[in-house]
Amino acid sequence: MEPMTTPSATLDTTCQPACLRIAGDWTLAHYASLRRDSEQLRAQATSDAIADLSQLGNLDTAGASLLAELLGAERLSHCTEDLPEASRALLKTVYCSVQDYCIPVKAPERNVLLLLLERIGSAVDTLWQDSLQLLGFVGLILETLVRRLFQPHRWRVTPVVAHIEQTGLDAAPIVALLTFLVGAVVAFLGATVLAAFGATIFTVDLVAFSFLREFAVLLTAILMAGRTASAFTAQIGSMKANEEIDAIRTLGLNPMELLVVPRVLALLISLPLLTFVAMICGIVGGAVVCALTLDISPAMFLSLLQSDIGVQHFLVGLAKAPFFAFLIAAIGCLEGFKVSGSAESVGAHTTSAVVQSIFVVIVLDAVAALFCMEMGW
User: How would you label 25-52 residue by residue, b for 16+ Cβ within 10 Å and e otherwise?
Assistant: First the structure.
C-alpha cells in the first residue's frame, strides 16, 4: 500500500497566466483542510488561471468533488490528459453529477389576500363541479329506475332486502335511543323556559311539533348520512380499488343496476320507517319527562296531543324522508365510484360522502321549512 502524501493546493502567480498547482492525495481523510484551501483559492484565482494536476496522488469521490468545484469544466477538460484513466473517469463523473444537481429555487412569497381569493375560487369551482356530477348521477339513477320499472325479471329483490336489513333494521336501535333522549332533553328545556310564563302545559305542543315536523326526520337523516352513506362509499370504493367494478362491466352487467339501484331503493324504504320510529320515540321521551317533572299524565299528554296537533305536521315530516333518502344514497354511491384505487382514496371519499350528505340534508331541510311556512302548511 502506497504511503499517503499530504495534499496541497497553491496558486503560482510568478508565471503568466497564473497556475493552480494541485499535489498530494485528495481524499476524504484531508477533506476539512482541502475544503478550506479550495474556498480560499476560488476567491483568489482568476478565470484565465490554468491548472496543473501532474503531482496529484490518490483521488476519491470527496476529493474529486472539491476539484470539480475548484477547477470547473473548462480547466478539467484541459488538464486531465496526464492523469490515470481511473482518476480521469472519476473526475468526469463527479463533475457531471454536480452539474446535474441543482438546489431548488425557493418560490417567491405571494400576497396572503391573493392566496385567500385563490383558495375561495378553487373551493367554489370544486363545489360547482361536484354539484354537476351529483345532478348527472341523480339523472342516471332515475333513468335506470324507469328502465327497470317495467322489467320485473330484472328486479333484484334479494340485494334490496339485504340492504334494508343493514340500513334500516340494524339502525333502528340507535335511532330510537337517540331520538328518545333528544325528546327528553327538548321537553326538559321547554318546561324550564315555559315555567317562567306559567305555560308548562305547552311543553306537549313543543315536543310534538318539533319531532313531527323537524327533529325526527332530520336526526334520522343525519344518522343515515354518517352510518349508511359512509358504508355505501366504502363498499363501492373497495370494489373500485380492487377492480371488481371493471370485472362487472366485462361480464356485461350494469354497475348502476347491480350496485346503486338496490341501495337507493333500500334507503327509500328504510328512512321513512326509521323516521316514523324516531317520531314515536321522541314523543315518548317527551312524555316521560312530562310525567316525571310536570305531573302531566300519559293520558293527559295523549289528549293534548290529539287536540292540538294536526295530522298535517306528521305528513310534512314524513314527506321529507324519501328526498333525504334518495340524496344520501346517491351521494354515498357517487363518492364510491370516485375512488381512485388506494386505501387513502377510500378514506377521503368516505369522509367526503358523510360531509356532503349532512350538508345537503340540512340545506334541503331549511328550504323545505321555508317552503312550508310560506304555503301555510
Answer: bbbeebbeebeebbeebeeebeeebbbb
The answer on pLDDT for 1 being more than 50 is no
Cβ(172)–Cβ(271) under 8 Å? no
On whether both 160 and 256 belong to a single domain, the answer is: yes
> Residue 37 in contact with residue 9, Cβ under 8 Å?
yes
Of residues 359, 371, 362, 370, the one with CA closest to residue 131:
359
CA atoms within 13 A on the CB side of 356: 27
Q: What does the pLDDT look like over 278-294, one tens digit per residue? A: 999 999 998 898 888 88
Residue 117 inside a domain? The answer is no
Rounded to two decimals, what is the model's pTM? 0.67
Number of neighbouring beta carbons within 10 Å of residue 237: 29
pLDDT tens, position by position, 35-48: 777 777 776 666 66
Is 171 in the same domain as 273?
yes
Residues 218 and 306 in one domain: yes
CA separation for the pair 291, 293 (Å, rounded): 6
Total number of domains in the chain: 2
Residues comprising the chain, all counted: 377
What is the pLDDT, as a whole number, of residue 323?
92
Query: By three-state DSSP, how is residue 11 classified?
Result: strand
Per the prediction, the chain carries an average pLDDT of 82
Q: Which of 68, 100, 132 is the last residue of a domain?
A: 100
Neighbours of 3 (CB within 10 A): 6
User: Residue 36 sits in which domain range?
Assistant: 8-100
Based on the fold, state whether residues 340 and 255 are members of the same structural domain: yes
Note whether 188 and 290 are within 8 A (CB): no
Mapped to the 3 state alphabet, what secondary structure does 314-373 carry? HHHHHHHHHHHHHHHHHHHHHHHHCCCCCHHHHHHHHHHHHHHHHHHHHHHHHHHHHHHH
The verdict on 231 and 168 lying in the same domain is: yes
Does residue 193 sit in the same domain as residue 299?
A: yes
* Cα–Cα dist 272/220, whole Å: 9
